[in-house]
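Hey L., structure's done. Input below.
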Amino acid sequence: MSATDSTAHPPVKVRANILRLALPSIAANLMFSLVAMVQTKFVGSLGASAVAAVGAGQRVFFALQAVLMAIGVGASALVARSWGEGQPNEASRIAASSLLLGSIAGSIIMLIGMSFSRQIAAMFGLDEYTSQLAARNIFWLSAFIIGFAIDIILSSVLRAAGNAWTPLLFGISVNLINLPLLYSFIFGKFGAPRMGPAGAAFASGLSLTLCGAVLLFLWSRQRLTIKFMMSDLWRPDRYRHLFHIGYPAAMEQLVMQGGFFLFLSLIGRFYGTEAFAAYNVGVNMLNTAMVMGTGFSIAGSTLVGQNLGAGDLDAAARSGWRACLMAVAAMTAVGLIVVFNAPGLARFFLGTDQLAVRRATEFSYILAAMLPLLGVDMAIGGSLRGAGDTRFPLMTSFLGLVGMRCGLAATFTFLHLPVIWVYSSIIGDYILKGTLLIWRFRSGRWKHVIKGHIAAP
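Output:
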């Protein structure tokens, strides 16, 4: 079947299913985005060094949780496939195995992050004061990594089973707890210690861990779509499938975070704290558009996996293309709104620091131009991962981020060009990735990546 056939006159059911899965995920991520904006506003009142420290801490945290993300990707693909095949018990066992694996990995990651927080922070090339603030942020983000493991894995398997509403309610609960904790621990209010930028990490980790404990309790009491089934927990072929799908996703995350490290290190070392802080603020300004892409990525991943499990290859292809079109349209619209208000938003987050405001405004324009391309990356990349095709997105991430973005950024830095040139290398990254991902999805090879199935016991 050609790409044209797969996108012509998609049935209403495909659109409805995508929206049914995407909207709760968008709402949940939008709440996280809004809280992140509030966090940036709180931290921004402490100066550009504080904003840069939080940005560095978040980047390290994303790198540390790469393994957890990979387990979530593998679990999501296998659960969706089992659910589509009519094997809910096997889907539940996959969830239990994934959570056990995630807990073990999370414990190791926690020890690494807490033990080497200072050394990791120093890699960004920031001034000594900012680097110390970043180290404290990394320490507390690492301390609560188990809570993030629970969130990533249980939310992933629930969405893969078609339940996007429980993760939404979970996200609402996390944010309702997180907001007062942010204010308390950043500024030292209501009897809490004044932790400054590190208070953002402490508050976020604590709120997620508390709500994760409740989610675990509900799961153990059989209150979730995915049932608590601990029998046959150590079945080797189940872990083999998780590893087969998950390790390319882990490598992709490591490549991505390594590329981000290099990219941000160039900015921090050669363009200063203000330019580094502007990157973090610009991302937060356009986070609303990005969370929409995440929602359509989750919807495409789930429907592609379920339709492949049910043996409907045409519906799987239609789901991926439709998710892509909807992601691009939604992200472009939100990006345009933010661009028209970019200077005011930058001043809102950064106050009177005129250099940081100018840098954040410039960066937001670059990000807005990149958003339609990012929509392709998120939706088509998510659809491929939902099919278990995790190796190809790994290749595109390496070529786009390390080869194109970091290569261009290093060239522009070597030529002593203004930082806006370095920011603009992001566009080259996503042009290359989007082109390659569309080619792969049109080829249809992803439909047959998972050769075997885990037979129900």
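The chain is about 85% helix and 0% strand. Confidence is low (pLDDT under 50) at residues 1-12, 452-457.

-- N.
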